[in-house]
Each structure stands twice: as structure tokens, then as C-alpha cells.
Amino acid sequence: MVAYGAEQRVRLPALRAGWLTQTFVHWSYPVEAVQALVPEPLVVDEYGGAAWVGLTPFVMADVRPPGVPARLPGLPTFAETNLRTYVRHPSGRDGLWFLSLEVASPLMLAARGIGAPYHLGALDVTRRETTLVYSGRRWAGGASYRLAVRPGPPIERPTERDVWLTSRWRAYTRRLGLLWETLVEHEPWPLAGAGLEVLEETLTSSVGLPVPSGEPVVHFSEGVRHVRMGASLPCPPAAAAS
């Protein structure tokens, strides 16, 4: 069971931001289909005997270095969309593995240095009365998505699966033969149910996944405003970590 609140403090963040207006769309997959996209020594983390892949569009707000107040005018705010799965390190630490990262700002491309698979594109998040519409198209390669969701009432008591699908406190990347770990701290997600009205996407096929089958699991969150991302550091070798 993953932690509902952050597993650790990030006392010296490298970056601070808010993650707002976030939707989580999750599909279950056979474990072997997803494990083929994950590097050793990471293994796919399973729930209910399946691997899970999440499409998560949101707004990255007030991006700033530590010490800069969120109220400062002109801080970068832009749309981002992640395609991700859930993995476990030989040490037992669970986390995210990003299959692709779509972003509307060149600011985040610096994370390519540790292997984060960022792609620049035209992304948009629009609120239309009671519906949120997310859309994006990658500039290079043409992968795209469009989804419309209608947020439902708040989830007062998140289930184990609700927490498992939405709460992760580290991300893994791979670059230059090294596995990197980035710790994250923020307040628990305020979750709501959501109805999916439109879903068109080619992100899953662009990373080599089969077309999702079955109905997705959908959550919505107005977001978290106190995100603290630590510096990315190389993981110790698997033998040392164990």
C-alpha cells in the first residue's frame, strides 16, 4: 500500500510549483506488456494482478526555484501531460516511470539530462461550465490527445485503489547508463470522481502499448499547490540498495 501523504520530506527542493486541474485516466494492462517498456532493475508494480498506465493532464503553475514566493507575478504556468506507469526498485521503493511527457514550455526540457522523456507541443486546458477539456499535439512525431471530463463530487474516503493510482512520492528516469531518482513532496491529493465524455489519444500507441481495452478508471483533482521536487540523484546499484 502506498502512502496517502508524502513518504518523506524534501527539505532542500530544487524546484517548487503547483500541480492544478489534474485528471487521472488509468487503464489496466497485462504486466508483460508494460514491463517490456521499463528498464532493469525496475519491475512493474501491480494492483489487482495487473499493470496500470495513467494519462494525467494538468497545469504546472508558479514554477520557481526555492526561496521565490508563489505570489510573485510572472512565474511560469503551462500545461503538461504525463503518460506513466508504476514501478518498484529492488530496494522496495515504489515510484513513477514516465513513458512520455508532453509539455508546452521549453523550461522542462532541462530534465532530458536525466532521461525524462519530455516532448514540446501545443497543449491546452479549458474549463467549459462543468466540463474540462484537455488537448495536445506533439510538435515532433504527431502524437496527440483530446479528452473532456466532468468532475463529480469529492471522494471523502479514498479507497486503497484510489490512493494507489494517484499517490507516488518519487520518479525514476534513466540516462547515461544510470538510474536516477527524484523525490517529491506535496499535500495529499483532494480527489473527486469524474465522468469521461470524450477520449481520443495516440500517446499509448506512440510508446508501443496496445490499444487500451475496457473502461478506464477516472479521477479528478483541483490540485496541490505546495509541490517540492528534490534534486535528481543517481540510485545506488541494485546490490548495494538491497
Give a quick summary of the entry.
By secondary structure, this protein is mainly beta. The protein has four helices and 13 strands.
**Radius of gyration, rounded?**
17 Å
Could you give the order of the helices and strands? EHEEEEEEEHEEEHEEH
Low-confidence stretches: none
In terms of DSSP E residues, the strand content is: over 45%
List the helices and strands and how they pair.
Blueprint: E1 15-29, H1 31-35, E2 43-44, E3 51-64, E4 78-88, E5 94-103, E6 118-128, E7 131-138, E8 144-154, H2 160-166, E9 170-175, E10 178-185, E11 191-201, H3 203-206, E12 217-229, E13 233-234, H4 238-241
Parallel strand pairs: 5-6, 5-9
Antiparallel strand pairs: 1-3, 1-12, 2-4, 3-4, 4-5, 6-7, 7-8, 8-11, 9-10, 10-12, 10-13, 11-12
What do these coordinates show?
There is one protein chain. By secondary structure, the protein is mostly beta strands. It has one domain (15-241): Acetoacetate decarboxylase-like (Beta Barrel), CATH 2.40.400. It has four helices and 13 strands. The protein has helices spanning 31-35, 160-166, 203-206, 238-241, and strands at 15-29, 43-44, 51-64, 78-88, 94-103, 118-128, 131-138, 144-154, 170-175, 178-185, 191-201, 217-229, 233-234. Strands 1, 2, 3, 4, 5, 6, 7, 8, 9, 10, 11, 12 and 13 form a 13-stranded mixed β-sheet that branches. The relative contact order is 0.24. The model has no long low-confidence stretch (mean pLDDT 94).
